[in-house]
Amino acid sequence: MVPKKIEDAFSKQVKFELESAYIYLSMAAYFDAEGFEGMGRWMRAQVQEEVTHAMRFYKHIIERGGRVQFHPIAVPPQDWQSPLAAFEAAYKHEQFITGRIDGLMKLSQVEGDHASTTLLQWFVDEQVEEEANSSKIVQELKLVGNDGRGILMIDRELGARTFVLAPDLASLYALAPAAG
Ligand SMILES: [Fe+2]
Ligand SMILES: [Fe+2]
Question: Which of 22, 87, 102, 143 is most buried when burial is the number of CB atoms within 10 A of its CB?
């Protein structure tokens, strides 16, 4: 049975992960409207990833006999000054989420709830990657500055991203795992 405090905190994290998806979908809409096709595609892949983050917490609560509670999702910002400003906001948002994961980790340790500690360890590692990904793009955009060709190259590069569902989540989505 999942401890009540963990159930509550994880339910809130379901909201934060879906809120992340909503923010990135808004960024995708901004990029798509501005003609940055690759960045739009990158953000739409990011949306899928954030939804799977929410689903990892959801799955954990359900598997341990808990009940997910739902919270309102905030309206995201809808305009940015530039691709750089949007990715800076994305990086800042990931830092905020890392802070939340750290808080959950502390709670799981205080509660002595090893099952949630294990789940959260995955998220600790994931956040290192999330911060690194957005921060790298911020650095690249800063490097090219106002050079249109440079921005176009970054846009192309980011457009190569595809979303791949982690095999351990396939059953959660009622999908057959990929062969191979
Ligand atoms: Fe996330
Ligand atoms: Fe994220």
Answer: 87
